[in-house]
Batch of 2 targets.
Target 1
Amino acid sequence: MKIGELARRTGKSVRALHLYEEKGLLDADRSEGGFRLYGAEQLARVYWISKLQDMGFQLGQIRGLLDAVATSSSAPAAMESVREMFRGKLNETRAQIQRLMELERDLTDSLGYLEGCRACNEEGTASVCATCADTRHSVPEPTLVSGIHITRSSS
């Protein structure tokens, strides 16, 4: 298939595919007319690159992974490089999930707190919110809300 077809099938732009080729991540055969031609192996490679990018790998890291596999003295040594890289990414992913779960809790707590503000009858500016002691709030003011009340010092 030509590069346009590969782009359509993978959802990648032609420019991205050219970049993959420039970085040594993708090979193309050439037709007699000089067109790039790709087969099933290259299609699978583009999907693989996309999946690794989704996991947060940069193109240089992917190139490094391919280089490590290519220069390994044995198949087990090559797969050890892959395992170590994936293990590191798994640890990063788990840490990111933990941070996102904490953010979700913070947002949920803040939204719950802010529901009590719907019935507020205070007149004036939002500065009165900083001293709110209304009983409609069932929990202490969350940090995502309290940060709003910090006033800028005048310079």
Note: The two ends are 64 Å apart (CA to CA).
Target 2
Amino acid sequence: MNIRPNILVICGRNKRRSRTAEYLFKNDNRFNIRSAGLSPKSDRKISESDLNWADLVFVMENRQRSKMRELYVHTNLPPIEILNIPDEYEFMDEELIEMLSIRMNEKLHHIYNF
């Protein structure tokens, strides 16, 4: 049996970018997906249990990876990949969907060969 990896997608407040990614890939049979935000004002704030669950984390910006490393300095973090998607899109924006689809699939193919 092939175990599906757990993918965690992070953005600032979990309102637009990471929520779109979770919605976009929620029925993908290759992996499990969850989203969260780094801000205390997030709809769903990242927790240590999210990080323990995740095999791979996607962040939208370099500074988000840096912030995660600062906040969870004593945690064994999973690999963190940067998607380089600026915070200028609404939830389910067509351009955002296209960018997430292409960039996440490229990285997933490179890492997991699917």
Note: The chain has a mean pLDDT of 96.
